[in-house]
Each structure stands twice: as C-alpha cells, then as structure tokens.
Backbone:
C-alpha cells in the first residue's frame, strides 16, 4: 500500500479519481493523494471540507477476493489501522464512533468512506477514502463544524505535524492489518474495533432513514453491523445511521 501514489495539487475528489483508476485496472495498493479537494465527499451524501495542505486527503484501491458483504469490514479495518498509527506516531488517544468516525476528545478528526465495485458476487475493487484533519486550524473549519471537528495539530497544542511521515506509518499499519485480515479473518479486527469504540455499552440514538432507534450499543456483527438493544430487550441491527451518544 502506497508504493504507487498519484499526486494531485487540487482535484474535486480523490475518490472519483480512484474509481477511474480502479476501472482502468490499477493494482491493489494504489493511492490517490490530493493537497486540496474542491468537492470532497463524505458519508450519507455529505461534503468533506478539504482545505489546501491541511490534511491527508487520499483514496486507496484494494482488491480483496471476497464477496461484497465483506466490504464494511474493510471500513472498520481502516479505522482500527489509522487509530493505531495515530496513537503510535503522535501519542494521541483516539476513539472510534460507529461505523468509521475517529474522534479525539469527543471531536471528529478522521472520516472514512468505503465504496465498492463488485461483479458476480465478488469484490472487484474497494475504494477506501480517508480524510484526516492533520494541520487544520480552528479558523479553517467552517463555523458550523468548529464544535464538532478537530485536527491532530489542534489536539497537539498547535504543533505542525509532518503529513508525509504520518501517511507512511498509516500505509504500514493498513498493510499489516489487511494482510492479517486476509489470512486470519475479521475476528481480531472486531475485537480491536470494539476496544476503541466510544459507543459499545453506552446508551445511544441511531438516526436511520426509517426513524430513530434508542438503546444500548451491544457490539458489532461479523458483517460490521451495529447491534442496539432496545429497552424491551429486542436487538436491532443497524446498517446505516448517524449515531448520537
Ligand atoms: C465521512 O466521515 O463522512 C467520510 C469522509 C471521507 C473523506 C475522504 S477525503 C479523501 C476521500 N475523497 C473524498 O472525496 N472523500 C474521502
């Protein structure tokens, strides 16, 4: 991962370029990196604020030989790998909010967006989009995000952080987890993910397209689906939602 990097000064979205490169047959591990995105894309059709030089805005092409239902596992894998890289490189404690937000002191510093091409029940490619607010300053966040978002630098008291060396550590961490996952399966990722999770065991509200579900977050399934126990003891399985703690 990261042996082959396509670098852009500015682009609408690295995700879009990675999709094109994947369809052209570029190999697994290919990375698209941009200094700035003008139409950065988030989950649930949101936008992702990607100011020039402030972050790591990148998309990685993976080609696991797996059925498409496994794709959510790769999102959780990426979250765990990034948390471990940030903790070891910068000594900052991170938490994960289902499915893929990385929080520091309760504010979001990293978002992950996984998109999929599948054919005949096999994954052809997965595009793992990673947005890390590295050196974003308080003023660079739009005002509506200031109480919700943070950057690694802000959490380190304003010190500038070297994006290239952090990206290298993230590639190593991702590669290590990914190889282990292909060889041994999802169980160890699931355990690590649950150990970093802010929500497990806590009362949460999941806002889904079909309404709100309240209850205790009990864990994730082998497919990466969130399990919520309602007050009557019934377990709800959440595939896509916004979580409020
Ligand atoms: C989210 O939390 O909503 C996911 C955000 C993902 C942002 C990254 S930045 C690099 C890649 N390109 C995009 O347009 N989006 C992802």
Residues:
């Amino acid at each position: 991962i990261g042996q082959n990097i396509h670098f852009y000064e500015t682009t609408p979205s690295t995700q879009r370029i990675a999709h094109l490169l994947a369809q052209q047959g570029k190999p697994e591990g290919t990375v698209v990196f941009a200094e700035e995105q003008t139409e950065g894309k988030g989950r649930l059709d949101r936008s992702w604020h990607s100011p020039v030089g402030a972050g790591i805005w990148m998309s990685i092409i993976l080609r696991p030989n797996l059925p498409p239902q496994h794709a959510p596992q790769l999102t959780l894998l990426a979250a765990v790998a990034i948390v471990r890289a940030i903790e070891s490189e910068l000594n900052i404690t991170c938490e994960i909010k289902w499915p893929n937000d990385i929080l520091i002191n309760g504010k979001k510093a990293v978002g992950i967006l996984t998109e999929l091409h599948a054919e005949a029940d096999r994954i052809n490619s997965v595009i793992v989009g990673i947005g890390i607010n590295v050196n974003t300053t308080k003023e660079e966040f739009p005002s509506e995000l200031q109480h919700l978002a943070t950057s690694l630098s802000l959490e380190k008291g304003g010190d500038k952080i070297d994006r290239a060396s952090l990206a290298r550590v993230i590639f190593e961490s991702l590669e290590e987890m990914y190889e282990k996952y292909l060889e041994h399966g999802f169980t160890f990722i699931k355990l690590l993910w649950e150990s970093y999770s802010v929500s497990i065991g806590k009362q949460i509200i999941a806002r889904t397209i079909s309404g709100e579900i309240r209850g205790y977050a009990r864990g994730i399934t082998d497919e990466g689906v969130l399990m919520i126990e309602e007050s009557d003891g019934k377990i709800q399985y959440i595939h896509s939602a916004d979580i409020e703690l």
Q: What stands out?
A: The pocket of biotin is lined by residues 13-15, 37, 40-43, 46, 48, 50, 57-59, 101, 111-113, 129-131 (CB under 6 Å). The longest strand covers residues 107-119. The CA atoms of residues 180 and 188 lie 9 Å apart.
